[in-house]
Amino acid sequence: DIDECAIGTHNCSAEETCYNIQGSFRCLSFECPSNYRKVSDMRCERISCFNYLDCQNTPVRITYYQLNFQTNIVVPAHIFRIGPSPAYAGDNIILTINKGNEENYFSTRRLNSYTGIVYLQRQVKEPKDFLLDVEMKLWRQGTYTTFLAKIYIFITAHAY
């Protein structure tokens, strides 16, 4: 594997981030929606919300992640862990995959009241890219707070 991102042989624009994958690379664009501000390369935070429902139902934070696996990964495979940091007694989370799982390759499971995982539940036979929107609703002291993880998953051909 040649790291095209490191040696500069990619064709990503100045607004895109080069992400190296096995045997290739991807040009990724990380934009914050309106009413969010970029607080780091991979994180957006909500600027304001208009009422109680809006505050509960729109993510307070959107974070981007990139994962890279090969087609021969053994399933079920835990690929991502999510939970509040710090976690407190009485916390409770609900995990939902809102987008990107139309073919049902992925699922979520709670390990306990404040930790959940995303796992690959069936084999991906050909190289394929996914972008999953995984929402975590945190119930803490009588209020829901929503967090969104946007997870790029690149399944590449396994190297022989």
TrEMBL record:
<dbReference type="InterPro" id="IPR055088">
    <property type="entry name" value="Fibulin_C"/>
</dbReference>
<keyword id="KW-0325">Glycoprotein</keyword>
<protein>
    <submittedName>
        <fullName>FBLN2 protein</fullName>
    </submittedName>
</protein>
<dbReference type="GO" id="GO:0005509">
    <property type="term" value="F:calcium ion binding"/>
</dbReference>
<keyword id="KW-0106">Calcium</keyword>
<feature type="domain" description="EGF-like calcium-binding">
    <location>
        <begin position="1"/>
        <end position="45"/>
    </location>
</feature>
<dbReference type="InterPro" id="IPR001881">
    <property type="entry name" value="EGF-like_Ca-bd_dom"/>
</dbReference>
<keyword id="KW-0677">Repeat</keyword>
<dbReference type="Pfam" id="PF22914">
    <property type="entry name" value="Fibulin_C"/>
</dbReference>
<keyword id="KW-0964">Secreted</keyword>
<keyword id="KW-1015">Disulfide bond</keyword>
<keyword id="KW-0245">EGF-like domain</keyword>
<dbReference type="InterPro" id="IPR049883">
    <property type="entry name" value="NOTCH1_EGF-like"/>
</dbReference>
<dbReference type="GO" id="GO:0005576">
    <property type="term" value="C:extracellular region"/>
</dbReference>
<dbReference type="Pfam" id="PF07645">
    <property type="entry name" value="EGF_CA"/>
</dbReference>
<dbReference type="InterPro" id="IPR018097">
    <property type="entry name" value="EGF_Ca-bd_CS"/>
</dbReference>
